[in-house]
Amino acid sequence: MNNDNAMLRRERSLLVLLGLICLGLVAGALYMQYGLHEDPCPLCIIQRYFFLLIAIFAFLGARFNSWRGVRLLEVLAALSALGGIVTAARHVYVQANPGFSCGFDALQPVVDSLPPAHWLPGVFKVAGLCETAYPPILGLSLPTWSLLAFGVAFVPLVRSLARNRRRFA
């Protein structure tokens, strides 16, 4: 039983770390937006939402003292990471195969109509186009880095869920 408690504490600590990393990634996106003047597109904003969802679920999961609560929130975090993978992969595809956008992205009205875009427009309001390719970082585009980050969040969450599936007490 003592080993089980130690494993639960470790799992909760890892969730806190995951949440902090996701918040750091959003902070980095805000630095790129305001410090480097790289305007976020609709897919960038959706990826911010997914990073924040992962962080929220990770922090909430770290608050539970039972495996059942931790597992539930890890499932939600993993689903958010999966949504981020799909969004980032779409963004990579759009930048690899640009089409004619005539200065308008069809996702912009949808993303801008979400409540957080009204509450914090500086964070969640669309200002750019998905086809705009900013300078790569270490040879990779921003959407590719985002895709990698979502994968780095998703794989350990799924491995943890598989490894600890018997601990639902």
From TrEMBL:
Compartments it resides in: Cell inner membrane; Cell membrane
GO biological process, alphabetically ordered: protein folding
A cellular-component GO term for this protein: plasma membrane
Single GO MF annotation: protein-disulfide reductase activity
Matches recorded under SUPFAM superfamilies: DsbB-like
Keyword field: Cell inner membrane, Cell membrane, Chaperone, Disulfide bond, Electron transport, Membrane, Oxidoreductase, Redox-active center, Transmembrane, Transmembrane helix, Transport
Disulfide bonds: 41-44
Membrane topology per record: Multi-pass membrane protein
Transmembrane stretches, start-end: 12-34, 46-65, 72-93, 144-162
Ranges of the Cytoplasmic topological domain: 1-14, 66-71, 164-169
Top-level taxon of the source organism: Bacteria
Periplasmic-side positions: 32-49, 90-144
Family in the record: Belongs to the DsbB family.
The protein's role, per its UniProt record: Required for disulfide bond formation in some periplasmic proteins. Acts by oxidizing the DsbA protein.
PANTHER family listed in its UniProt record: DISULFIDE BOND FORMATION PROTEIN B
Protein name: Disulfide bond formation protein B
